[in-house]
Specification:
By secondary structure, the protein is mainly beta. About 0% of the residues lie in helices and about 60% in strands.
Length: about 120
């Protein structure tokens, strides 16, 4: 069974850093786009950062210059380095990936979510 497993959330003081990780497990042939989203209660899930298979990145304006997304294609893993954290970054973060589960067939997967809490 293919799934994404997240780790690295937690509680940190404002100005601190956290690193989120998300690893794809199970049987798949390759990984296309990978991304991190966040979602606060009552709101839609919003893109934080994305990275293509070729390494092209995209960031939400609110995190530009503070967060860095990266990936390890050999491990099927995506990371989110979060620096200069602010209380408003507090929310649940979800990883996303497009996995090739059979030849030229890509499916979308979501991680289970990890809580990030930034205290003032």
């Amino acid at each position: 069974q293919v799934q994404l497993v997240e780790s690295g959330g937690g509680l940190v003081q404002a100005g601190g850093s956290l690193r989120l990780s998300c690893a794809a497990s199970g049987r798949f042939l390759s990984v296309r786009a990978m991304a991190w989203y966040h979602q606060t209660p009552g709101k839609q899930r919003e893109l934080v950062a994305s990275i293509s298979s070729g390494g092209r990145t995209n960031y939400a304006d609110s995190v530009k210059g503070r967060f860095t997304i990266s990936r390890d294609n050999a491990k099927g893993t995506v990371y989110l380095q979060m620096n200069s954290l602010k209380p408003e970054d507090t929310t649940v973060y979800f990883c996303y990936a497009e996995l090739e589960t059979s030849a030229n067939i890509f499916q979308q997967y979501w991680g289970q979510g990890t809580q990030v809490t930034v205290s003032s």
